[in-house]
Amino acid sequence: MRARDLGIVIGTLPPGEHNAITDVPGVLVGHTTLISGDGPLVVGKGPIRTGVTVILPHDGDPGHEPLFAGSHTLNGNGEMTGLEWVRESGMLESPIALTNTYSVGVVRDALVTASVRRRPASGLWSLPVVAETWDGYLNDVDGQHVRPEHVFAALESAAAGPVEEGNVGGGTGMKCFAFKAGIGTASRRVPEADGGYTIGVLVQANHGRRERLAIDGVPVGREISQAEVPGPDVPAPDAGSIIAVVATDAPLLPHQCRRLAQRSSLGVARGGGGGEHSSGDIFLAFATGNRGLRPEEHEGAPRTFGLSMLNDDHLDSLYWATIEATEEAVVNAMVAAEAMTGRDGITFHAIPHDRLVEVMRRYGRLG
Fold first, then answer.
1. 44: exposed, middle or buried (C-beta count within 10 Å: 0-12, 13-18, 19+)?
2. CATH number of 3-296+308-362
3. pLDDT digit string (tens) for 105-131?
4. Residue ranges of the domains in the chain?
């Protein structure tokens, strides 16, 4: 179930075929989901509600064929490895993985292992991009249950087409606005007059306070309060974090990718996210519109490259596409998710579809 299945249409730009990040040609997504155990938390044993999601930026080896990329941090109480080299070089040279906070290291190392297996004699090094949000309300996060084989399985399963959302992969134990959430995705096509490019966004949504939730401008969080659909009883209001990955087939240079990543934060804000003090809100954008790029140290690399660059005057439509796709991806993460009970009996409830439709219709957003 997704937002558009309920009649909720965010923005004005049309989505791509699958309304997913995989609408950008060559982009692949894979998940490994880990769910086991119930009852009281026993660190190292469970309950386990976690996983890993991988995004392959194209169907080749990004170590041999990097892409231009850029990033933006709204609030930095989070982690995305490899980001300094992305900023320095303007290049994305690895798959992107999303997981829980305490599994970043093992996922990063597994991506290195996978890279070495692909090119054992090449001598290329790797600084993989791995991002996290914290799933410790539901998951035995301290137990660090994600293993290298789970990363390898996610890489092996990565595919084009529709993307599974909600309680899957890195989003398995995540919540959003005190509803169950996780992985969500959406896409937009810009007008042919602006190039007809595609923007795809995938989020790991684990942020937001219920009373601030807005969907297409409707104050859903105030209408469906925690008095009606409770969230967990935590000591203080929880803000949490969000990771967003933006992909496009437009021919963008690194500084343009960075500007695109910035616009994801506006999509988060339109939904009620505030980038609070304790949140980790990190956004990465990459562009597939220039292929054939190689690191300078690669044997046989040319001295110069011929590049294509979108005129900055035509970026506005891509900005709006990013904003709309990010906002809808967050909503899809909640609509697709199902209620989940994790460690110590803590439960995050799914956003009730019938009540959501009723509220949206009352505010004139549905027919």
1. exposed
2. 3.60.70.12
3. 999 999 999 988 877 655 667 899 999
4. 3-296+308-362
